[in-house]
Structure prediction request, 156 residues.
Amino acid sequence: MTRVDYYNDPNAPKANSIAVAVSAFIQDDEGRILMIRRTDNDLYAIPGGQLELGETLAQAAVREVREETGIECEVTSVVGVYSNPNHVIAYDDGEVRQEFSICFRANPISGQLRTSDESKEVLWVHQNLLRRLNIHRAIMKRIHDALERSPEAFYS
Prediction:
């Protein structure tokens, strides 16, 4: 399924659903950031996805990272809660979802980088190389907030 993100776009379609999503900001010992290139929109992002029944938010983040990247991680804190109603995601099945995502900071524990059905590329990226990647503004906001390391979690 393909998706199109609309961010502060007056021509965006109206949201008709909302779902709880998680993402994980992970840096290795060299300070590189774990990134994926999504299969549904061809953009680079931090790993993440939808909460499933029977799991906690932190468990969902760990599962999504493992599924999309092959990396096992441990959640350590909350970067922020992102619920901007002006960020909607339109899917080709007619769903238009309002953003609702909790971004966690996590540490890598083990594993080897690998792709999945949701990630066509998985890589560790130095912070100074992020601008070379096609990253949606909403994801850049999460990365910026994580790198800022504020003692308070961001929320919208």
Remarks:
- The chain has a mean pLDDT of 97.
